[in-house]
Structures are given as C-alpha cells and as structure tokens.
What does this fold into?
Amino acid sequence: MNIFDLHCDTITACYDRRLSLQHNGELHLSLERGSRYDPWVQCFAVWIPDTLRGQAAVDYFTAVAAFLEATAAKTEQMILCTKKEDLNKTGPVCHGLLTVEGGAVLAGDLSNIEHLHRHHVRALTLTWNGSCEIGDGAMVAHPRGLTPFGKQVIPALEEADILVDVSHASEPLFYDVASLAQKPIIATHSNARAICDHPRNLTDEQFLEIKRCGGLVGLNLHRWFLREDGEATLDDVFCHVAHFLSLGGEKTLALGTDFDGAELGKVLRGIEDLERLADDFSRRGLSDGLIHQIFYQNAKDFFDSL
It folds into this structure.
C-alpha cells in the first residue's frame, strides 16, 4: 500500500519527549510501524506553539529540524528528501519532507525564509490557532487577514519554493492569501465544516478555491474536527471524504492525518491502521483507484509538478 501524508507532528513530539522516531510505542507514528507502506512519503511538521515568538521560535525550529536531520542520517529507515528526485528513490523506507506549522517561525523577518529554505522546508502553515506576525489564526475571536508583513511573506515563500499552507488560517486570512497567491495553496490537515462545524475546518467555498487553484486538502483524523461532540468513528471520517468528493475533490483530496497532534479516539490507533481506513473506504464503495489517489497519488502528482 502507498501512503503520502501531508502532516504529522511526530518529530516535534519526539524532540520534546526525547523519544525515538525509529522505535516507539507511545506515539501514533514510528518508522518501524510505517515501514509496511512502500512507498511512504511523510511530511514532518515542526510545530511552533503560540507561546513561542521572536528568536525563541526560530531557535526552536532550528533545534527540531536538526533533530530530524540527525535521525535521518543514522537510520536506513528514512530518506530526508532535499531535492525533487529524492521522492522517487525506491526501497522500504520513509521519504521524509520537512514542514513548519506556525508562521511565528519567521519572527517577523523575511530573511528567515532563507533559513527555512536552507533546511529544505517544503511548506509553511501560516498561523497556528492564534495570531502571529503574518496574521490571525482560526481561533481568534475577531480575526483579521494578512498583516502588511504577511502580504510580503506570500510572494517570498513562493519565490523560495515553500508551499503556502492555510490550515489553521482564519477566513479573512484565507481569502487574503487566495487573492494574493500566484501558485497553488494547500490545506495540509483540514476537514469539511459542512460536516463538522469547527473553525479549523474548511467551508465549501474555501475547498473549491483550493481546488480551483490546483492545490491539495489533507484529511485530518482529529476526532474534534471529524465530529462536534468528539465521538468520531470511521463513519465520520467517511462523511468528510464523501462531502469533499461531492464537491468534485477527486484530484484535490489527500491525507493529512495530524498524527501526534491529534486525538484519534475511536478512529485509529496510528499509522499501522491506515490500511484499515482504506479497507473501510473500499467497503463503502470507493474504487481502488480513487482510494489510491486519496492515500498517495494526488499528493505525489502535486509534488512532482512543483
């Protein structure tokens, strides 16, 4: 089975808790448990919490990125992809991509985009739930869109070939980005607000805008984004999938599990259960080809096109 997951917080959890990425029984993901998938492409996010700002945010990113780089250097279970062709290397290994969740990593300084570029960051989630120098996140009470600095960030990220990720963005921020971006935007880990009315989820209009520009939306397995009371099951996961497909999302929908940043509840135990999720989609009538698109090919085609 092939997997391309646009978002997990596992490397941040490993760094904070001094756990092994290769072997652990405490997290949703380990290289050992993911090795059943071939190929397996995994985006590893450095999460910048809203408590970190300024140079502290930059330093934290640098430390976690170095931790991931050191992990990749000492194991044969993972290739850290630093160039496009790395995604096509063969073998039962994890093809890792580095991303950042939280625009506070820039500390209000455009020169830090080059710092991300040197570490081969492939995508930047512009905000987390609160506000940062770029703009307001989805949980801000009276959100505004891009700040003057934020309006400089979007073209600078595009110039550096760093994808603009609008998961966690407030609606005003989302639409400011959509009007300014010249390249496809992505939402690495967001669900359908029509199914679960949470500010972190996408409205139909937002999903269609991402589809229009040729972007991607990653299906999030966090139980509170799947169902409003948090009692999510596989039924609820499929409701979000079916809704996005009803909007013509066959080429737009991908995986964005949010492993180790999510509460999975009754949905899955972790990466080892993605096969069970695919089997569930099959029982509900999705073709093998469409399941393959969602679980791998849509994201692979997108990254190959960059």
Observations:
- The chain has a mean pLDDT of 97.
